[in-house]
Design goal:
The protein has a domain of 87 residues. It has a two-stranded antiparallel ribbon. The chain is mainly α. The protein is globular. The protein is 40% helix and 8% strand.
Length: 129
Amino acid sequence: MKHVFRMIGLISISFGILGCTSTGTTQPETPAPAAATPSAAPVSSFKETAKADRENRGSIVPYPFTTCAVIRKDLEGDPKYRRVYQNQEVLFCCLPCLNAFDTNPGAYMPRIVAASAAKARGETVNSGW
């Protein structure tokens, strides 16, 4: 019985990831997240984001794009998920993308930080395609 529930969980996770990335257009390959050990806690968490919001109200650098930080899909209005990582706001379209970022934020942050700096200088910032 445990195997059935495990299989259902794996299938639902697969569909969640496919639902996130299947937009009808070809997405560029994103860096593969580093393998996480089961006991490893996420690098950035909801509690850390809430704490950073309280402590750094005016100094959090706004997210420079209108696309998801991981798959660069248009956020279509309000983003579903948000993190504050190293005083930088980061936005996501879905939970699988948020989990990918939490597993390996270093793969995504250089592009975000560079775009934020360019935007602060008054330069035009595109989604990084």
